[in-house]
Automatic annotation (TrEMBL):
It comes from Labeo rohita. It holds the Pfam family Glycos_transf_2. GO terms for cellular component: Golgi apparatus. Residues 64-107 form the Glycosyltransferase 2-like domain. This is Polypeptide N-acetylgalactosaminyltransferase-like 6. The keyword Transferase applies.
Amino acid sequence: MKAGKGEHGKPYPLAEDECDDSVYKENGFNIYVSNNIALDRSLPDIRHPNCKQKLYLENLPNTSIIIPFHNEGWSSLLRTIHSITNRTPDHLIAEIILVDDYSDRGSALLMSSVNLCLKTWQTLHTLLRYREAAVLQFHTFDWAMTGIKGTDLHSFLLLPLEHALC
């Protein structure tokens, strides 16, 4: 069992000098805490006991996973990608598409980090950047429906969802 702050979904304890409400303004969450929790942290299995006993088909279709973001705290975006790649069988992921909705904060760091991700994760194929804000509404992703590989589920809970579809 892994040990560390934030492991197994446990709260991250803050010392009094680490409590600063201003960190919530930029991202809507405490980026200091996010930056100090492991990217590949362990999480408890919170599925209903009946779901843990479920057997799934072996030959399920793969899917493209779309992750839209705008000025996202980099550690939370990376943790999302890690969670998907660590908790989803490889054969179910056709690709991961990052859609940057015109992030304008920390752009150089974001781009260098995204480029590193593109080299690191074989399933992470695409980064799309809007030149102006598209307001992250799903209808703005109509372009994505052409050329997406596999099943369109809009979720990374692939096994139960695809099993129900087959």
